[in-house]
Task: structure prediction
Amino acid sequence: MTKHISDSAKIGQNTKIGFNTIVEENVEIGENCLIGHNVIIHNGSKIGNAVRIDDNTIIGKNPLFSPRSIFKADKFEPANIDDDCLIGANVVIYIGCTIGKKNLIADMSTIRENVSIGNLNIIGRNVAIENFVEIGNRNKFETNVYITAYSKIEDYCFIAPAVATSNDNYMGRDKERYQHFQGITIKRGGRIGVNATILPGKTIEQDGMVAAGSVVTKDVPKEKIVLGSPAREFGKVNDKQLLKNNLDKE
Result:
């Protein structure tokens, strides 16, 4: 047997499915899709039209919960991937994810449960997006970015390689931490340079910019550049770089 497709699955016209692929019960796959080899699409997942899913990728994975985890088992909606998305090889997209149209999710990325992603985003290689994250439209996450749980990223944001974010000021000790988990917020047009670190609960305001290697311990003001460890205000974003002057180029 080179593949298993449940009798209850619905497969659209002109959709091609590779070897050793498993399509479970009540899955819906639209028309003109290309599903690679060794792909697993779990129960109830919905895939739109003209979606490409590359080899060894898992859609609709159930999360694991350690007895020590702050997160507990819950009832999740099936994963939902909208039209014209490109999903790379060895990607894991968990149950409860909602992914909009025309997103590119590159090889080895992981998107946890209860994540919503808008349209036309680029999520680079080996990006990790934790649970309870909300992402808007037209953002770019480059290789090895880590987005912590409970974060919100609006539209037109740029996050350079190896950016790390955090949501726990207590560093895993003291039960008081359970009351204070807070991810980061990046407002419309915010940008973060390579290898920067954003600490829990911090906000990068609209068109705020974090220089490479900085450690952000305070909110970043609108249209300002911060630099250093800890990051301090360095100057104003050049007018030519402001989002309002670049939307026609996006």
User: Anything to note?
Assistant: The domain at 3-64+75-249 is CATH 2.160.10.10 (UDP N-Acetylglucosamine Acyltransferase; domain 1).
